[in-house]
Amino acid sequence: QGQLVESGGRLVQTGDSLRLSCAASGRTIRYYAMAWFRQAPGTERVFLAGITWTGRITKYADVVKGRFTISRDDAKNSVYLQMNSLKPEDTAVYYCAIVGERTWTPTDFSDGSIYHYWGQGTQVTVSS
Asked: Phi/psi zone of residue 34: left (φ > 0), alpha (ψ -120 to 50 degrees), beta?
């Protein structure tokens, strides 16, 4: 069935940039839409960014629009999240996810139920 493995999370300071990676193993991400979510302590997991299987369309939550950028490299079987101008409120565990249906474009990337596989998460901590 394969798995998704996030990496790149670490402790940074306010205003810093960070790039997260999500590598798939045992399966391909080609032809599948993907997304990033995050979960802060005591809160629910929330949608951040999504990308279609073609890579041509991206969607962002308002809270990260203009600061975060999602991208994909199917040749490397990976999806990325570039995060700029980080704030303490960005502190959370960040997860990547992949839909189960090939060549399907979600109408609502923020709906967590459409994703069939999730990574284990990577911790991002932004100090003030």
From this structure: beta
Show the beta-strand stretches assigned E in 8-127: 11-13, 18-25, 34-39, 46-51, 58-60, 68-73, 78-83, 92-99, 115-118, 122-127
Query: Tens place of pLDDT for every residue, the chain, 128 residues?
Result: 689 999 999 999 999 999 999 999 998 999 999 999 999 999 999 999 999 999 999 999 999 999 999 999 999 999 999 999 999 999 999 999 999 999 999 999 999 999 999 999 999 999 99
| Two structure tokens written together for 56 | 């041509």
Q: Residue 110: how many CB atoms within 10 A of its CB?
A: 15
Separation of first and last alpha carbons in the chain: 40
Q: Which amino acid is at 56?
A: R
CA-derived radius of gyration, the chain: 14
The rounded distance, in Å, linking the Cα atoms of 94 and 92 is 6
Output the pLDDT for position 2. Answer: 80
CA of 58: how far to CAs of 17, 41, 65, 113, in Å?
A: 20, 27, 11, 19
